[in-house]
């Protein structure tokens, strides 16, 4: 997604065609057109595309660990800032929001860099 409200998030989509030398047309799996008549389609630059990251089993997250949370039909990058009972609290730098999530809505944050998945470190 290219809109400012979606900065810091990733959504599942299928590439439907190539549009020029560095752009592709995609159809989102969970985002609908404004009139809700079907999946949203748009043209995106190559640098906005990445494959789905591998699933990495995780039983807990540590304070200040980078993670992705599934919210509003997409994955949002954030920082674990607390835990209470079975909920993790995350801070999202791109929106300035803090929200809570159960473990099953979280995954390890990974970055797509030079054609492979990496685990960035906070520091």
Automatic annotation (TrEMBL):
Q: Agenet domain spans which residues?
A: 3-57, 59-114
Q: Which domain of life is it from?
A: Eukaryota
Q: Which organism is it from?
A: Cinchona calisaya
Which SMART domains does the UniProt record give? Agenet
Q: What Pfam family does this protein match (any one)?
A: Agenet
Q: What is this protein called?
A: Agenet domain-containing protein
């Amino acid at each position: 997604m290219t809109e400012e409200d979606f900065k810091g998030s990733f959504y599942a989509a299928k590439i439907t065609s190539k549009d020029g030398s560095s752009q592709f047309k995609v159809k989102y799996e969970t985002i609908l057109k404004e009139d809700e008549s079907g999946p949203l389609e748009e043209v995106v630059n190559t640098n906005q595309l990445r494959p789905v990251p591998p699933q990495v089993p995780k039983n807990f997250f540590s304070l200040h660990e980078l993670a992705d949370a599934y919210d509003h039909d997409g994955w949002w990058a954030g920082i674990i800032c607390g835990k209470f009972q079975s909920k993790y609290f995350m801070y999202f730098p791109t929106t300035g929001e803090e929200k809570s999530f159960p473990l099953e809505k979280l995954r390890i944050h990974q970055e797509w860099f030079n054609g492979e998945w990496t685990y960035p470190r906070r520091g």
